[in-house]
């Protein structure tokens, strides 16, 4: 049986604004007697260039779902991250460079015609890449607007050939405690697991990101592939996926296992439904000092509200 440790509050660290993080880092750098150059991102650019899929980017932009503005600076979106496998604070981007993203195999299992494995580059060769600029709303109340590259989740589902009884798709992050030190902490329900109902997975908006800012996706953002469901709180967007499983049962997800009273399966963004410990009415865009109103379904209601018409009895917004 799973031992639960009440650590849900760690995902509620909304006091650590990006500004304060940057200010702290700047004073640290100053204290160490280093110049502004130490704040630059030395390793990241070369990791992008060395990626074997680099030539596939940038992909053609699809503006069908809007092009929200203002775009978050790449430096902010790639240095302020949630990736608990590498640590519980926001500054894990440097440690995440240890993640090896080749070879990378995705295992397809469960209720499918035939289970199989596929390498990331074989998968990339089977899909049509495009760029989409999406809003991202973390449950902790920070938000960003970034250009993902990738392909519709629907293309992945079709490739997997689920059987008619499949109702949910369950996705998991790589297990590798050597590289991801927090995975040695047995009180977390590793590996990070998320899921979508089948109709959510097949929705036009649901995206698998393999690129970011016109390049292969950064390791800290979930290379080589991560989920992007922009109408849901950010924790649904499972990173560095190695397993895609189809099931007739709703999975228990990572945060739900840790703290089900605060983090549920559906997790749709709704400014009217507060988190038990803070309001969700407004959000703080990364790099901005002003709060802005949060929108129902993070502004994507026209594309996704219909998914929930027959699910009113569920806890849709937590
Ligand atoms: N495997 C894994 N996926 C994860 C997380 C995580 O800790 N581990 N954090 C989630 C949360 S809470 C958010 S807000 C987003 C953050 O994505 P970003 O770092 O690319 O902005 O990733 C989500 N996916
Ligand atoms: Mo989040």
From TrEMBL:
Subunit structure: Heterodimer of a catalytic subunit (MsrP) and a heme-binding subunit (MsrQ).
UniProt family annotation: Belongs to the MsrP family.
Domain Oxidoreductase molybdopterin-binding: residue ranges: 99-255
UniProt KW keywords: Metal-binding, Molybdenum, Oxidoreductase, Signal
Function text: Part of the MsrPQ system that repairs oxidized periplasmic proteins containing methionine sulfoxide residues (Met-O), using respiratory chain electrons. Thus protects these proteins from oxidative-stress damage caused by reactive species of oxygen and chlorine generated by the host defense mechanisms. MsrPQ is essential for the maintenance of envelope integrity under bleach stress, rescuing a wide series of structurally unrelated periplasmic proteins from methionine oxidation.
Catalyzed reactions: L-methionyl-[protein] + a quinone + H2O = L-methionyl-(R)-S-oxide-[protein] + a quinol; L-methionyl-[protein] + a quinone + H2O = L-methionyl-(S)-S-oxide-[protein] + a quinol
Residues that hold Mo-molybdopterin according to the record: 81, 84-85, 138, 173, 221, 226, 237-239
GO MF, one example: oxidoreductase activity, acting on a sulfur group of donors, quinone or similar compound as acceptor
Taxonomic source organism: Reyranella soli
InterPro entries per UniProt: MsrP, OxRdtase_Mopterin-bd_dom, OxRdtase_Mopterin-bd_sf, TAT_signal
Cofactor(s) needed by this chain: Mo-molybdopterin
GO biological process assignments: protein repair
E.C. designation(s): 1.8.5.-
Membrane spanning residue stretches: none
Processing and modification events after translation: Predicted to be exported by the Tat system. The position of the signal peptide cleavage has not been experimentally proven.
Pfam families in the cross-refs: Oxidored_molyb
Record's protein name: Protein-methionine-sulfoxide reductase catalytic subunit MsrP
Cofactor note: Binds 1 Mo-molybdopterin (Mo-MPT) cofactor per subunit.
């Amino acid at each position: 049986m799973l031992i639960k440790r009440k650590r849900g509050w760690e995902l509620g660290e909304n006091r650590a604004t990006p500004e304060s993080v940057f200010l702290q880092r700047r004073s640290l750098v100053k204290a160490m007697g280093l110049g502004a150059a130490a704040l630059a991102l030395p390793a990241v650019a070369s990791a992008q260039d060395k990626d074997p899929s680099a030539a596939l980017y940038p992909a053609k932009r699809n503006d069908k779902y809007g092009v929200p503005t203002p775009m978050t600076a790449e430096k902010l979106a790639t240095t302020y991250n949630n990736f608990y496998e590498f640590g519980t604070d926001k500054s894990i981007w440097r440690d995440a460079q240890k993640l090896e993203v080749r070879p990378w195999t995705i295992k397809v299992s469960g209720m499918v015609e035939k289970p199989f494995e596929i390498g990331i580059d074989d998968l990339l060769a089977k899909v049509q890449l495009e760029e989409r600029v999406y809003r991202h709303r973390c449950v902790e109340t920070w938000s960003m607007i970034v250009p993902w590259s990738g392909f519709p989740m629907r293309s992945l589902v079709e490739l997997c050939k689920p059987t008619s009884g499949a109702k949910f798709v369950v996705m998991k992050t790589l297990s590798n405690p050597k590289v991801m030190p927090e995975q040695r902490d047995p009180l977390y329900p590793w590996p990070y697991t998320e899921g979508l109902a089948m109709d959510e997975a097949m929705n036009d908006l649901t995206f698998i990101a393999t690129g970011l800012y016109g390049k292969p996706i950064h390791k800290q953002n979930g290379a080589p592939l991560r989920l992007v469901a922009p109408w849901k709180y950010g924790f649904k967007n499972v990173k560095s996926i190695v397993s895609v499983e189809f099931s007739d049962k709703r999975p228990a997800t990572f945060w739900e296992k840790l703290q089900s009273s605060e983090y549920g399966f559906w997790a749709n963004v709704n400014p009217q439904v507060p988190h038990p410990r803070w309001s969700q009415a407004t959000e703080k865009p990364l790099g901005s000092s002003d709060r802005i109103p949060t929108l129902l379904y993070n502004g994507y209601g026209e594309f996704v509200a219909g998914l929930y018409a027959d699910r009113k009895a569920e806890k849709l917004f937590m």
